[in-house]
Design brief:
The structure holds three protein chains of three kinds.
Chain A: H1 12-34, H2 43-67, H3 72-98, H4 120-144
Chain B: H1 7-21, H2 28-56, E1 59-63, E2 72-76, H3 78-105, H4 111-130, H5 134-153, H6 158-189, H7 194-204, H8 209-226, H9 236-242, H10 245-271, H11 273-276, H12 281-301, H13 306-327, H14 330-361, H15 372-375, H16 377-391, H17 397-411, H18 418-440, H19 443-446, H20 458-476, H21 478-492
Antiparallel strand pairs in B: 1-2
Chain C: H1 2-6, H2 8-26, H3 30-50, H4 75-105, H5 110-116
Helix pairs in contact in C: 2-3, 3-4
């Protein structure tokens, strides 16, 4: 079953509104990811919002615009790099904690400040990237039938 | 703290990180190198862990910087060490064999995904075995469900997708029930760490016995669906038949076992025999195990496809394990764990050799495989040794396993159950022997076949020979393993 | 009976669990089975999170220097976040498989697919 969708003609309202709204959605997503340790949100919720903005971009601006930026290879490389960074950070924390080693640890900081909380901030960023790419890949799989 | 304490965590991290490093390089050769080297290093680390635990005793390893009730801990005793060695041995042999056989079943694009999924699967199964925290076990259960459905569906045929969908839906049913059980236990005690839960449960047992009965029931049905206890096994024949040969070997040998180990840990570590002994749960598990032993074999006799017959035989052998758990005695538990070892080695050898026969001759039905012994003598020899082990011929590990069950039954003063063990051994013979006899003997079967016509080169059969060597080794010297298991059981509780 | 009405969150969660369970098993349509699975998982999340609620306390966020009198238990919320992510990923995987099944078999009814069988 072929799933080639005929792209509707460019609607000017959608294009103009999209050009203004999508950056705001992405800034909001980055805000939610970075404030994961201070207020509700974090990697999962922020990643979903970022993925939703990528889906919106793909729906409004069509295939030609996105084919050069979010190909399968590039997206997979970002996701694997994020997963490896996540694994390395977590592995360092687990092994030094479990073996009771006295090595350098990420400074904990004070509660309430943005750049504090030890490992939580880099981990939230990695999780945000992973979740957004996963949401986008699943949307492409359902919409077009192939990745 | 000795360095081998951290090896279980290093094994799991290594397997996960190597699984995520594979999609970066897109070539099949790099995927194989990364996957097999990670499995090889993990195999060496697991042996070092087992040697360390045998020398120094069981230990707790805290993961991260927080201690027990607030952080996650791993508990490594002799039984967990043995399981680690078993899982890494079987998965290393299957990965080695898959280098020669997986190209035949999958398209070229999907082979790296297969290696990613296998590494994820083995890593998460080891996580279920090692972890001492209930919710951590649940997360690893979910990872292993998705990975095991993945290795069924990575081959792209029509019936694979149907089998994987049935497996996924029934598997998530099981996970939902297990999560509800964890919710009940958490609401009773407020802890998620197994020894802490045990202390609280023992003290509040008289007031909340009905709650605990429901929780044990939910865990039994949930983990029973995932590890093919008798009436809940309906997903198993399709999933194990249509998967590629290496996937079937991994699914049947390893995936079912990790959930059984978790079930043993829940019954004996979280609840303990003082609570479970009053409830009728173990008797029901014993009954379902006994019925499974016989019904699985009866259903296997009726099958025409060779892999489907071996899959139903898996249901029967898992019935043995539940039979041993249901007996409730230490000897029964030791017999069940020995059967886990026996079945893992035997069934993986059987599935790999059956898959090899199907791949080389192109015929799937037993009726078409007459005389295949002349064309593929060594492969059918491996199948023969595996089959004879499951029937219970002495000098092979299956005989030791059935002997252990008989001793456990007599020690528990339930001699009438001995008949079940004997009848199921007899039924096993009824469906393994026709394949073997028709393969090697019979004049009209052998005419027209050329000797070693379609045989695999010996170099490709070496991994399956390694598994068969394990079967013979546990057959000849099973006593050492059994005493090791019995020494490890008190630490499990 | 008043116990059931006093803990109305947990009662509602168990009823939803039963609804989801029966939907998962009884209907033949694959999409309904996936919906039933989601209802069942959501019911467990509701049960777990409701068990962490303590009446009269606030959400566990430190807003300013003067903190509230007591906080709700944050552990079940964090655990269920993981559970929700797992449920979403299994739903996505099952839906992707359903699309492939529809392409190859032409129907989404599990009973008819089993009857069709074959290679």
């Amino acid at each position: 079953m072929n799933k080639i969708h005929k792209e509707a003609e460019r609607s000017e309202i959608l294009t103009e509104v999209g050009k203004v709204i999508i950056p705001f959605i992405q800034i909001f997503a980055i805000y939610v990811i970075l404030n994961g340790h201070l207020s509700p949100g974090g990697g999962f919720a922020g990643g979903t919002i970022l993925g939703a903005s990528m889906i919106l971009h793909r729906l409004i601006f069509g295939w030609d615009n996105l084919i050069s930026r979010l190909t399968y290879d590039r997206v997979m490389k970002w996701m694997c790099a994020s997963l490896l960074i996540y694994g390395a950070l977590k592995g360092y924390s687990f092994l030094t904690g479990g073996m009771h080693l006295e090595v350098w640890d990420v400074p904990l900081g004070t509660p309430g400040k943005l750049l504090s909380g030890g490992f939580i901030l880099p981990l939230n960023i990695a999780v945000g990237i992973i979740v957004s790419i996963t949401v986008y890949v699943f949307f492409k799989l359902f919409y077009e039938g192939t990745i | 703290m000795p360095i081998y304490n951290s090896y279980p965590l290093v094994i799991i991290l290594l397997l996960f990180v190597s699984a995520f490093a594979i999609p970066i390089f897109k070539s099949i050769k790099m995927a194989r190198i990364i996957s097999i080297s990670a499995a090889g290093i993990s195999f060496a680390l697991s042996i070092l862990t087992l040697m360390g635990v045998k020398a120094d005793g069981a230990y707790y390893f805290r993961v991260g910087h927080f201690d027990a009730p607030w952080g996650i801990e791993f508990h490594i005793g002799i039984i967990e060490g043995l399981m680690g060695v078993l899982f890494m041995t079987v998965s290393l042999a299957v990965l080695w064999f898959s280098v020669y056989s997986i190209d035949h079943d999958l398209s070229k694009k999907k082979v790296p995904i297969f290696y990613t999924l296998v590494n994820l699967l083995v890593g998460s199964l080891l996580g279920i075995v090692f972890s001492d925290d209930l919710f951590n076990c649940f997360v690893f259960i979910e990872i292993s469900s998705i990975a095991s459905c993945g290795i069924v569906v990575v081959k792209d045929k029509k019936e694979n997708i149907k089998a994987a969908l049935k497996y996924l839906i029934l598997s998530s049913l099981g996970s939902g029930l297990v999560l509800m059980g964890i919710a009940l236990v958490y609401s009773l005690t407020g802890h998620l760490n197994m020894p802490h839960i045990h202390d609280v449960l023992v003290s509040i047992y008289p007031d909340h016995s009905r709650n605990m009965l429901i929780a044990i029931g939910l865990f039994t049905v949930g983990l029973g669906v995932k590890s093919a206890m008798f009436p809940l096994h309906t997903w198993l024949p399709d999933a194990h038949t249509y998967a590629p040969a290496s996937s079937s070997a991994l699914l049947s040998a390893l995936v079912l076992k990790a959930y059984v180990i978790l079930y043993i840990k829940i019954i004996h570590r979280v609840f303990g025999m003082s609570i479970v002994g009053d409830l009728p749960v173990l008797n029901i598990v014993l009954l379902l195990g006994a019925v499974g032993m016989i019904a699985g074999s009866v259903l296997a006799i009726l099958q025409k496809n060779i892999k489907r017959m071996v899959a139903y035989s898996s249901v029967a052998q898992m019935g043995y394990v539940f039979f041993g758990i249901g007996l409730g005695t230490t000897m029964g538990l030791a017999a069940a764990i020995f059967q886990i070892f026996n079945h893992a080695f035997t069934k993986s050898a059987l599935f790999l050799s059956a898959g090899s026969i199907i791949e080389k001759t192109g015929k799937k039905n037993i009726a078409d495989l007459k005389g295949v012994g002349k064309e593929m003598p060594f492969t059918l020899a491996i199948f023969t040794i595996g089959g004879m082990s499951l029937v219970g011929i002495p000098l092979l590990s299956g005989f030791n396993s059935k002997w252990n069950f008989a001793v456990a039954v007599i020690e528990a003063h339930r001699v009438e159950l001995l008949a079940v063990v004997l009848i199921s051994s007899l039924l096993n013979a009824l469906y393994y022997f026709p394949v073997i006899v028709n393969g090697y003997f019979g004049e009209e079967s052998l005419e027209g076949k050329v000797y070693r016509n379609t045989e695999r080169p010996i170099k490709e059969l070496v991994p399956i020979f390694a598994l068969v060597l394990g079967v013979i080794y546990f057959g000849v010297s099973g006593g050492g393993l059994l005493s090791l298991i019995e020494a490890g059981i008190p630490a499990l509780k | 009976m008043e116990h059931l009405l006093a803990n109305y969150y947990e009662t509602g969660a168990i009823i939803l669990f039963g609804v989801g369970f029966v939907t998962l098993l009884a209907h033949g349509n694959l999409i309904k089975k996936i919906i039933g699975m989601n209802i069942m998982d959501t019911a467990v999340f509701l049960f777990f999170i409701a068990k962490g609620y303590i009446a009269g306390n606030e959400a566990p966020i430190i807003r300013s220097v003067k903190s509230a009198s007591g906080y709700v238990n944050p552990v079940p919320t964090a655990l269920m976040l993981t559970g929700i992510v797992v449920a979403v990923s299994i739903t996505a995987f099952a839906l992707a498989l359903t699309i492939r099944v529809y392409e190859k078999y032409g129907t989404v009814d599990l009973n008819e697919i089993i009857k069709m069988g074959g290679e």
